[in-house]
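pasting for ref
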Amino acid sequence: MIRREVLILIVIIFFMARVNSSEINLSNLTIEEKVGQMFIVNANKGVNEKFLSLGIGGIFLNNNKITEDFKKIIDDYQKRSRIKLFVSTDLEGYWNPFSDYTSKSFGEIKTAEEAKLLGEEHAKKLNEAGFNLDFSPVVESKNEVWHGRSFLGTFEERKEKIESYLQALQTNSIIATAKHYPGGSMEKNPHWRLVKAKIDSGDLKNFEIAINAKVKAVMIGHAIVSGKINSKGKPSSVSPEVIRSLRNKFSGLIITDDINMLGIRLKYLFKKEKMCVDIVKAGNDLILDSWRTNPKKVEKCIKAITKSIDSGEISEERINDSVKRILEAKGYKVIN
């Protein structure tokens, strides 16, 4: 009888632990922990103790590895992270992080059914390695730089392909990301230069397709835009006007494009901490620092944002809004 009662008690404790582990009380997190959740960093070199101590929210992997190599890095990080991590990559077909897998590009996809099958195929490959967030699909139609990164065809054909692909990803437990809002990021290469673009209603309709199809994340580009949306001379990723235009119609995750691209860094030479503060002030939920990530600079950015919260420049409520979205997207029940 005693053994039976002990067994029941063990089962109850185990069940309660599982329930509690799926809940996070925001008031139990420090400001530093909250801000850490807003960063996704490059993890191609394996587990970095500094990133773990900073409580970063996610990792990015893209180094042309076989599935098992990715899986090992991901498992090591997830086991040692207090809060479940976003594990992200670019698998679009054109960009492919796997050395043991070949994919069609979006430009090769002829029908919505093919787009659905490609989404299912991508989701399967990502799940095998342990990824849960894909920076895909590109929904921009104006493409002068990377042919193959966007779906082709009439507006209706592209609409059906975008819907079919992203829904296939998300049905199979991979968060899809429509990029790069509000457009203009593929007219010239923002990795190496400042980019200016004029946004028209067609650019915005592409993102409305993804939002109406329940995409869970949208990536903000660095293009300096005018026209239907005006970024006021700033890269879109640090423009409150651009972020607000998206937030008014989208309740999911808003993620910056990589912050090491010259399309934004040329506006913040030797001022990375200020850039990170401005990114948060503009309304982004997640900061993508995925290229040549320097752990010490990430720490400085976290400290700069924390200092801005302490001074009242950024409200803690503003941070809580983003962290709540981040944690809920990871599957947690969030208690305020």
